[in-house]
Amino acid sequence: MSLLVANPTSRKKIRALTNAIREILGLQDEKCFPVVEFLELGLPQIFHDFSYEIVAPHELKNKYGVTYPEKNVIRLREDVYENAISGIGRDRFTVAHEIGHFIMHRPGSIALARNQAIENIPKYRDPEWQANTFAAELLAPPHIIKGMSVKEIALCCGVSLYVAQIQSGQI
Ligand SMILES: [Zn+2]
Q1: CA 125 to centroid of ligand 1, rounded, Å
Q2: Which of 34, 82, 97, 118 has the highest local Cβ count within 10 Å?
Q3: Closest CA to 104 of 141, 132, 76
């Protein structure tokens, strides 16, 4: 559980957001969402001050990526960025996850949880749950994966088998 709390939201609301993003981009029915292109070309058009930085692994310690909404920056580990370009599901998910933080967790929408309340934070207020749900809904939305097997979802949408299983309701 995160030590931070975000404004509450639901999977339904996050899905409406990711579907709106696909629609704005004209990619409603695109099976393999071009997440790196969205980072590089799409986000700067929507957020004019947005920039991203690719950094050496040691600069991020144990993290794959980190988002600073107040600085309008997403910082990604070099290997994650390159793997995402190569289509590796886990790394595509990381890029989408950080984009989720950037879009949903604008400055002022996140607060520190009070110590005694951490155990009781509902998942819909957990920024990590929200960013994971954003990534899963952006990359493998129900209208695209309908009727597909878990393997097909992973292959067509460029997600891990784990995410494919979650999105198909198997876990
Ligand atoms: Zn995160």
Answers
A1: 13
A2: 97
A3: 132
Please report where in the chains the tokens 């097909």 appear, as a residue: 152
78 Cα: distance to centroid of ligand 1 (angstroms): 17
| d(C-alpha 93, C-alpha 169), whole Å | 18
Q: Please state, for a pLDDT cut of 70, what percent of the chain lies above it.
A: 95
* DSSP-assigned states of every residue in 7-29: ----HHHHHHHHHHHHHHTT-TT
Burial class (CB in 10 A: 0-12, 13-18, 19+), 111: exposed
pLDDT 10s digits, 14-57: 999 999 999 999 999 999 999 999 999 999 998 999 999 999 99
- Count how many domains the chain has: 1
Distance CA 138, CA 128 (A): 15
Q: How far is the CA of 135 from the centre of ligand 1 (A)?
A: 10
Tell me which residue of 72, 77, 78, 153 sits closest to 106, measured CA to CA.
Answer: 72
Q: What domain range is 20 assigned to?
A: 4-167
CB 115 within 8 Å of CB 1: no
Stretch 128-145: mean pLDDT, rounded?
97
